[in-house]
């Protein structure tokens, strides 16, 4: 059993091309915790997710990210994944000619390492079970990765990957966007099934809706590329009811986006 | 332009001897000799952006004899890799100018199906062969077809009677080996009305320098018949390969081509389907990989003549090294082919700065009441896709491998014999390794 995971983000600054988007973001996530990041459009939420995973377009200019004391920013994208980070993406790529199951088996084996590959039988059993939880048709195992999937199918497929890879820190980037209420419940069900003391979650969302089904321990509001307010799940409920204006007022923020000159 | 006269290593006498040794009918020998005369007169085919004047056209020993083998175990390793010895039922293996192995189940003959090497077919079903011989590809189209007709040194004849549907695919393996050897098979497939057949061949080479492969495939698809031809070529850099394939499709007939052009050497291939009958259809799927300094000119062509005809062509190429591939897609819709629909797409994945891949979609439309479309793309492996796979723990190298093979896979997966699929995948990995 590995130690309880601990992700520490300290004063993180990141830019895309020459535009700074993350402007000093700090956050700590431990195993067993679910953190939700909420905020209006254009405040840097998805950038945070992509930067943590190591998307090549984003450049970290200062600050640090560590997972169990290891420097995440020094790691290549695949090393971050093998260290335990997982990002369920808002817009996952479509990869023609690579079946969902071949891809997942490659990913699992990449993590397990040579000589310790998962047996085909066990893999199929696990995949069948998890696809059943997510109410995915069996045919999705043999379809090419995300190719021709609807928005909702792609989201379920992201969660399927998360369930199969069993990461220690799960980042969900607007997993609820484009999902109807039934699909949302199924996805939430998958996430809840994975809640455990040795796994932490960072759930990025526009809306409170998802948080009705995935109860967060901590809720953070992001504006101008950093966290401006934190609280418990009651904060999400208030944001849903009253919007973000009261937060802006309270903090004296006029333009909440990352474009604001600070 | 100065041209160097080179001496041929064969003459009328050599051709006549080979013809006699195989007990070919007289008409066939006459066709050979007429074609030899035309060969001397005719020009090389005009190819888009590819000059083949300096390629090896005719410098070979055309009739290299090989020992017939009693068991499949004795086949060369390059051939054995292409077949499942436990499952291959209908199989012909040709090496240079000899059929070295044959396995022809009796059930075929009981159904009236002919699956024979060309020499046997000429002896036993001469009239039937004569009816179709070079009726789709004319012997005097250009220098290469004439040369083929003169020195054809093997091949396969497939005849499927009316209403007979064959479940298992017929398979042939063609091997060329040894310095200056020639592989010149002619594949003739006749599918009568409402019949169904799948034929798979692979072209392989063993050791040797300055080899030539010059092959022709002719397919006659009868009313309501369905024919699938899959061909995978993985000849070495030492082989110059010329392939001309053509199908004529009658009313409600269906012709499907699946082509793996993964030679290491210079290649000219033209694949043409003539949709003659009303509501006839064709699909052509091609994968190719350019490596090293090879030159390839690959043309997929469809001619719509009948009304309500449908065609779809998909060509995918991966380019590495300093290779040059010209991918031509030609959709021709003749006047009167109303309500026809012709679609084509060429997609090229560039893996090297020095390689060149040209996609040339051409629509030639002489009828107003039709649908036609084309899509061409030349691109690189998407960084976004690599990032996505890496974000699941897969290394960059493995991610690239998955994406490149995945780009070709939808075509590979269509081949009806698993061994040939697997060999093609291995060959692709080797070529891209």
What does it look like?
Chain A: Residues 7-249 form the ABC transporter domain. Chain A: Keywords: ATP-binding, Nucleotide-binding. Chain A: InterPro entries: AAA+_ATPase, ABC_transporter-like_ATP-bd, ABC_transporter-like_CS, FeS-cluster_ATPase_SufC, P-loop_NTPase. Chain A: GO terms for molecular function: ATP binding; ATP hydrolysis activity. The complex is a heterodimer of chains A (262) and B (433). Chain A has a 6-stranded mixed sheet with strand order 6-7-8-3-9-10, sandwiched between helices. A 4-stranded antiparallel sheet of chain A has the order 2-1-4-5. In chain A, strand 4 and strand 5 form a beta hairpin. Chain A is globular. In chain A, helix 5 runs parallel beside helix 6 (181-194). Chain A is an alpha/beta fold and 262 residues long. Chain A has helices at residues 45-53, 77-83, 100-112, 120-133, 151-165, 181-194, 233-242, 245-251, and strands at 6-16, 19-30, 34-38, 58-67, 70-71, 85-88, 169-173, 200-205, 218-223, 226-231. By secondary structure, chain B is an alpha/beta fold. Chain B folds into 2 domains: 12-277, no CATH class; 383-433, no CATH class. Chain B is built from 10 helices and 20 strands. In chain B, strand 1 and strand 2 (98-103) form a beta hairpin. In chain B, helix 9 runs antiparallel to helix 10. Chain B is globular and about 65 Å long. Chains A and B meet through helix 2 and helix 3 of A and helix 8 and helix 9 of B.
Largest sheet features of chain B? 10 strands, mixed
SSE series of chain A: EEEHEEHEHHHEHEEEHH
Total number of beta strands of chain A: 10
Residue windows where pLDDT falls under 50 for at least 5 positions of chain A: none
Question: If helices are DSSP runs of H or I spanning 4 or more residues, what is the number of helices of chain A?
Answer: 8
The overall average pLDDT of chain B, rounded, is 95
Strand content of chain A: 25-35%
Family (chain A): Belongs to the ABC transporter superfamily. Ycf16 family.
Pfam families (chain A): ABC_tran
Domain ABC transporter (chain A): 7-249
Keywords (chain A): ATP-binding, Nucleotide-binding
